[in-house]
Specification:
alpha/beta; Rossmann fold; 2 domains; 6-stranded mixed beta sheet; 6-stranded parallel beta sheet; 33% helix; globular; binds nicotinamide-adenine-dinucleotide
Length: 432
């Protein structure tokens, strides 16, 4: 592994023998602002595996943050160890001191294996820990706006494919009904969609069906992907879209919350070849990072929700740009004629055609440039909703939500009606 050739600005190894901390912090880019990305606590098989993950995840965060229109770069922290065994206050605080030592170049948050409550502990040592609990001035469970953003992306895909953003009368198959998936089901049912779900955890399925008796179930993902449906929503783990799945998928649209859905880079083309519209995961699941980022400004759920609403507009533009270019909304990341090498060529996060309009850092073809916002189509103006209620707000787009809050319970980032949802302080195992 050639870390210095990976394109990352900085990679920091952190060791604190006293607490047992072994961690890696990777900063891919700070071109748009401080590098935000959660901290993954995972029992990596080797130091090399941890570094590899940190490098890939931090780069993906740069894509996600810029596409979400946030003034943030991309970074990620990984702590090597089993969170159930090795997570202690001393270790988290030692980690917080390393984060602090970076002086704000890296902003951390939750990810797999870390919770809001853990970030509260990390924040005792650093000003740069976000994704904290509501009780500590944080944003709480980010899955709320993650699911909301996925719903916005799905509505945009429906608009693009069928000429109407409504999912009413469509069948949506949701694979994984944990935090994000179950919030998404709420929105879909509210919108009038028929929903079929599966989850490896039977209690997760039971919770959804108890709340929405009309929701149908599939025994497993293999059965789900063969069940007739219009939209497939992967909301469990990464790699859900493998060749076998894509080959049998009846859906016309794929739009879900899971990170890294494509099993390999060629999967985007396989989907396109079958005429399936793919809504890139890092575009539509950015609601969580939007929620976390808002914490920096004194958390306002209404403001974060309004920002997440813009995912609808950005997704529409991605789909239109992809059509115009004759590529998948998530075409391969390199080698595209549009990426070129001149200053007007585009930075394409994994080939997202929208970024073709963003200027490049001279000499770097894969980094956004600070101060080129005028051409940044992802930075849709955000409506001031500071005085609005916590209900979903209409975006500025003519294609905005068809019925922003009609008949729909307000989305709130607090004690939810989802029976077994973790308490606010224990929420968010996945992070943005
Ligand atoms: N929570 C967030 O804010 C957020 C933000 C961005 C992306 N994501 C991504 O969204 C996905 C879901 O996150 P979450 O927070 O809802 O996690 P979660 O753990 O609450 O839910 C995941 C669900 O998927 C189920 N599952 C696991 N493997 C499965 C399989 N093979 N088939 C069917 N179901 C399976 C689990 O039982 C669980 O119920 C993850 O990929 C995560 O990285 C989450």
């Amino acid at each position: 592994m050639d870390v210095l050739a990976s394109g990352h600005e900085q990679v920091v190894f952190c060791a604190d023998p006293e607490s047992g901390l072994r961690a890696v912090i990777a900063i891919y880019s700070t071109a748009l602002g401080p590098a935000l990305g959660g901290t993954r606590f995972f029992p990596y098989a080797s130091e090399e595996a941890a570094v590899t993950d940190a490098l890939a995840l931090s780069k993906a965060m740069a894509y996600k943050n810029s596409l979400a229109g946030l003034d943030l770069g991309g970074g990620k922290g990984v702590i090597i160890g089993d969170p159930a065994v090795h997570k202690t206050e001393a270790l988290l605080r030692a980690y917080g001191r390393f984060v602090e030592s970076l002086g704000g170049r890296y902003l951390t948050a939750c990810d797999v294996g870390t919770y809001n409550a853990d970030l509260d502990v990390v924040a005792r040592e650093t000003r740069f820990a976000h994704g904290r609990s509501l009780a500590h001035g944080g944003c709480g469970d980010s899955s709320v706006l993650t699911a909301f953003g996925v719903f916005q992306g799905m509505r945009a895909a429906a608009q693009h494919r069928w000429g109407s953003p409504s999912l009413a009368g469509r069948t949506v198959a949701v694979a994984g009904v944990g935090k994000v998936g179950s919030w998404l089901v709420d929105s879909l049912v509210e919108d009038g969609a028929a929903v079929v779900v599966t989850d490896v955890d039977p209690t997760a399925v039971q919770r959804v069906v108890a709340k929405h008796p009309g929701v149908r179930t599939a025994a497993d993902t293999a059965e789900l992907v063969r069940t007739p449906h219009d939209v497939y929503a992967p909301c469990a783990l990464g790699g859900a879209l493998d060749d076998e799945t894509v080959a049998v998928l009846p859906a016309e649209i794929v739009c879900g919350g899971a990170n890294n859905q494509l099993a390999h880079e060629g999967t985007a083309q396989l989907l396109a070849d079958r005429g399936i519209l793919y809504a890139p995961d890092y575009l539509v699941n950015a609601g969580g990072v939007i929620q976390v980022e808002d914490e920096r400004h004194g958390f306002s759920f209404a403001r974060a929700e309004a920002k997440a609403t813009t995912i609808f507009d950005v997704a529409l533009r991605v789909f239109a740009a992809a059509d115009a270019d004759g590529v998948s909304p998530r075409s391969p990341p390199t080698g595209s004629p549009r990426t070129g090498s001149g200053p007007s060529a585009g930075w394409r996060p994994s080939g997202c055609p929208v970024r073709a309009e963003i200027h490049l850092t001279p000499g770097r073809s894969d980094q956004p440039v600070r101060g080129t916002r005028g051409s940044d189509v992802c930075r849709a103006p955000i409506r001031d909703v500071s005085s609005s209620s916590d209900t979903i707000t209409q975006s500025g787009s003519p294609h905005g939500p068809s019925k922003p809050s009609a008949g729909r319970p307000p989305l709130r980032n607090e004690g939810s009606s989802h029976g077994a949802r973790p308490s606010e302080g224990q929420a968010d195992t996945r992070g943005p």
